[in-house]
Structure formats: structure tokens, C-alpha cells
Amino acid sequence: MILFLSRTLIMQNQISKPAGHRKNFRLDMPLAAGKLPNDLLREFLTQLDFHDPSLLINPGIGEDTAAIDVESEEVLVLKSDPITFATDAIGQYAVLVNANDIATSGATPRWLLTTLLFPCGVTPLEIDRVINELKEFCQRWQITLCGGHTEITDAVNRPVVTGMMAGTVTRKKLIDKRNMAAGDRVLLTKGVAVEGTSIVAREFGDRLADLGLAVSEIEKCRQFLADISVIEEARIAARSAATSAMHDVTEGGLATALEELSIAGNHRIKIDMDAIPVFAETREIGRLLGIQPLGLIGSGSLLICCRESGCQSLLEKIRKSGIKITCIGEVLDPGQGISAIKKGRSIDWPRFEVDEITRLF
Q1: Of 173, 200, 229, which marks where a domain is finished?
Q2: What angle do the packed helices 90-104 and 124-140 form, to 10 degrees?
Q3: What phi and psi values does residue 139 have, to the nearest 5 degrees?
Q4: What CATH number is attached to the domain comprising 342?
């Protein structure tokens, strides 16, 4: 079976020379609205290498599709997500946010297409930096950057990257949230709002400094970006027969992610609020800016449901890999909703209509 993937600009693998070393006077010149000019597109494409044997049609001027051979695969898993925050690391976010969701199904992230939208006046050098970042993080996780489109438009006032990721998994190993069952334990990796902590520090560092947060603490929070991937812990969990479901914590934070998990798995969930790990840095940022960590965008944290009998073994394997993980609750009977306890007493589960980070923009 051949899978055809639409795209106008195809970018993949490695650009052989750093952008700053290229002798092209046009790289620093602002671009007008429209598609990336063909001469610049050709320059980018001629410096790419193509090693993925599944890629049947390579990128080139006038090529509007990518063709991928998926004959040997059983299940194709698809995911799409736009990245509009953290423009200083937008390529990294685009790769990992999409790959994270693929990994929660037990699949291996394989191919990425991206639509890149830049505001008028952007330079080719700025576009090239994003392409290089996409390339770098695809290479790091053995993902083929196989297609996309790049456009300069007055419809945006900051870069926007929309990614579409495809992954593969055998039908037997596909993880379906509907396999959740009463008695399963609910695990959370790392802590609350890994992504949100980084974004807030990157986008609002000056505001935090004005509020008294030390520059060293702001920089520490910025570096939370290094931990937004959940691919490794998802791989470990996927290999465990005890794993019944996984869910990536994203927009709306842990509070929203648990509600989504409950709905998708059609089981109620009981959470011990005192067990939820919140980084001290995240808690301080929340205090200074008046935002709630549980409602803050949270890529980097993975929710795992697993059978009680295999819980301890899975905890040990993930911890052995160097990733923190905590049991924060259990799955109840069929239904939907979250029951919360704090200091032994029942409390209302917090709900957020929109992500807490939106209140800062």
C-alpha cells in the first residue's frame, strides 16, 4: 500500500552547512507575502539528504506530494497539532508535541509534515533556522521530515507551525484507552506543567523578573523545554502488558487531561490531590502570575493507566530510565468524571474552560 502525503515545500534530514556560513546575500533580506521563492527553496532542498527507504517521491521544485511505502505496516496512527507559542523553539515543539501523541498509542513516530506560516518581513535566515530545528529534532527521534508548505502571510503576526505526524504499530500492540478497567492505577510522569513552565519563562521572562523572580530561576524554567518529550516513557509503558491506556497532558493541563482520559476510556477516575507532583518553580510562577499549575499546558507529562498487578514493575522500569513517575490515583467503575480527595476529604475537581496560559497573553 502506498500512502500519499500532500505538501508544497518538502524538508527532510540534514542541511549540510550552518545557515550562518552560507554565502547568500538574500538570507538577511525580508520576504514579501507569498510562497517561499523557488530559488531559495531549491537552495534549501539541494542541501538535504534522503535516507528513509520508505520515501518514494523525494522533495523538489514542482513536486506537490510525498509518497511513502507503508506496505509492511499494520496500523497507521495520525496526529495533527499547531504550535503558536514559544517561537524561539517552535521547531522543537512542533516535533515533540506531535510525536508525543503518536507514542501514547504505542506507535513509533515515523513521518512529519509541517505547514510553516511566517509574518511578512521574515528573512530566509529566520525560516532556515526553523527548518534546521525541525530537522535536528526529527533526526534525534528517527523521524522523517517528509513534507509541508512554507508561506509568508499577513494572516499571522508571529511564526506558526502546524505539524501532521504519522506513526506505525502492529495491531496487537496498539494501545486503546477503551481498555481501561476498574482497579487500574493512574500514573503521572515528571510533574505538572512542564511545557507551561518553559513557555511562561520564555514568553514572560521580563514580567517575572519585574515581579522579583531571580534571573537564574527564570533560566532554569526556560530549560524545562528539554523535558517536554514523553516518547521514552511511552515506549517503556508500551512494552508492558500491564499498560491499558496512555494520554499526553497538553492544553488545559493535568485537570483537563484527566477529564479527557476519563471520557475516552469511559471510566471514572479517583485522584489523590496530595500525590500530584508540582515543581517548586512552577508553583512559584503560578503564585507570581496568578495562574493555576493544574490548568497550565503540560506537554512533558504522561498519564499511564496500568493493571494493579503490573504497577510496581512499570514504576521501577520507568524510574530506572531516569524519569520520575508517581501514582496519583485509580480507575473506578464505568462512567465519566473525576473524583478528588485532599487530606482525606472529597473536594471538587478543578475545571478550566481555557488553558491558564491564555490569560497571560
Answers
A1: 173
A2: 30
A3: -60, -40
A4: 3.90.650.10
